[in-house]
Amino acid sequence: MLPLPPVWISLALALAPVRAPLVRPAVRPPRPASADSLVAVAAQALAQGRPWQASRLLAPVLTDSARRSPDALMLAATAASEWGGWREVGLLLADRPWLDSIPDGRARLLLARAALEQHQDSAALRFALAAQHSSVAARDAERLVLLALALERLGARDSAAATYERAAGMLPGVAGWLRIRAAAVTDDSAGRARLYAGVTDPLPRDRIGWSEAAARRGTGDLVGAARRYAELGARAMALRLRLGGTPDSASRAAIRRDLQALVEAHRSPGEVRDGIALLDSAFTPLSPAEELAVGRAAGPAGVPARAAAGFERAFAAGLGTVEDRFAYATTLTRLGRQAEAVPQFALVVASPKTPRVLAASAAYQRARAMVRGGDAVKGKLALELVARTWARDTAAASSALFLLGDLASDDRADSIARQRYRKLVTRYPTSAFAPTAAFRGAMIALVAGDAALAADELDELGRRYGRSDEAVASGY
């Protein structure tokens, strides 16, 4: 089993196109020489894995020029690095005249890491090179990894590969991972083969395919890279590369079909988002069928605005089902467009093609959108209608009664709220809202002075819904 790589090695493995596990063990904080009590307490907090608290403790120290020593600044920068405050690290350490006096080159290395995290690659290269003069041998491997990352980001592939190899020679525990990264920036296939041959640990060997795909991409072999990524299951990346290396219209048409198939497959949100972005960037305007596919996929993938636009364009062309109309209306509510959602839900309810369960849900969602859109009077009337018209649909009717109870409570009409809650419990005991409705109804009775009735209802809640969260509260 590989030893746990240091945090800076984990950074190297996480930032490049080659995918590798990320392990972030605690970093030993520097021991400040200052006798300042806040600095000492902050150092202890950092040592115990509480970097944010350490930063808060050090804040008053840093505002006092008499206490703002290099030790305090280094401790603050180390704490900030532990909670991801890389901009803070740069502000704390940049242009300090004492940087090279910090043992082991730690200050320069922190600045290099902060610059990399903020994609300031030229600055990272400068800091990593400067650290060469102040880092000891124990820290030189860390410096080499940061230097290699900066070189890779700046396109100096040969230098990056050589630097990764040097670091691999100094770090046998993670040498396989570093050789994999070196191979990803090596143009010569024979050189990559030599590097792969030196990888004996099974975990990094499993990532050789990713390294080879990245290397082919870096050398401009887009077709070969696309084939490799497709074999690895990275379909969106493969299609992006095929698109970049395919000028003829017939091939582009095939890629377009593959992109639509990728979007329709709904394999993962990230892949769907990438597929939609590729379609939009390379093939706009999309066909109505493609817009419908995008509308269906974009919402679950976390792009509701694009989902709404896709549905609108598909509907304008006469495409879409009542299920699509419901999804569109739901998307509008998520976008805060309640007034627009109301008529869309109404179309779902009115359509003869709508299944009864979907119609009941649309009727409730329409009433809820009215309330959320600020039309409480009409919304309450619509909720009452749902409870009557769809009384046999437990989900819709119980949801309507529960919301009516909430709205009555907001209006301080406790007796009406209790009536709604009790009606829900009595008629729809299997509803997910029933335990909460039972508890709220009992509490209203208790507040109104009927302790005996409240006790009976709370006992009943405990017996009927013993596994619910409200059961514990009802027993209390």
Question: How is this structure best described in words?
Answer:
- Helices cover 71% and strands 0% of the residues.
- With 476 residues, the chain is mostly helical.
- Helix 18 (288-298) runs antiparallel to helix 19.
- It has helices at 7-15, 37-47, 51-62, 70-82, 86-93, 106-117, 121-130, 137-153, 157-170, 175-184, 189-197, 202-205, 208-218, 222-232, 235-244, 249-265, 269-283, 288-298, 304-316, 322-334, 338-350, 356-372, 376-389, 394-410, 414-427, 434-447, 451-464, 469-475.
- It is flat and about 80 Å long.
Could you outline the blueprint of secondary structure elements for this entry?
Blueprint: H1 7-15, H2 37-47, H3 51-62, H4 70-82, H5 86-93, H6 106-117, H7 121-130, H8 137-153, H9 157-170, H10 175-184, H11 189-197, H12 202-205, H13 208-218, H14 222-232, H15 235-244, H16 249-265, H17 269-283, H18 288-298, H19 304-316, H20 322-334, H21 338-350, H22 356-372, H23 376-389, H24 394-410, H25 414-427, H26 434-447, H27 451-464, H28 469-475
Helix pairs in contact: 1-8, 2-3, 3-4, 4-5, 5-6, 6-7, 6-8, 7-8, 8-9, 9-10, 10-11, 10-13, 13-14, 14-15, 15-16, 15-17, 16-17, 18-19, 19-20, 20-21, 20-22, 21-22, 22-23, 22-24, 23-24, 24-25, 25-26, 26-27, 27-28
Largest sheet: number of strands, sense, barrel closure: none
Helix content: over 70%
Low-confidence stretches: 1-9, 13-28
The overall strand count is 0
Radius of gyration using CA atoms only: 31 Å
The number of distinct helices, counting runs of at least 4 residues, comes to: 28
Which percent band covers the strand fraction?
under 5%
Overall pLDDT, averaged? 90
- Supply the helix-strand structural class: mainly alpha
Shape: flat
- Please trace the helix and strand order, writing H or E for each element: HHHHHHHHHHHHHHHHHHHHHHHHHHHH
> Ends: how far apart?
51 Å
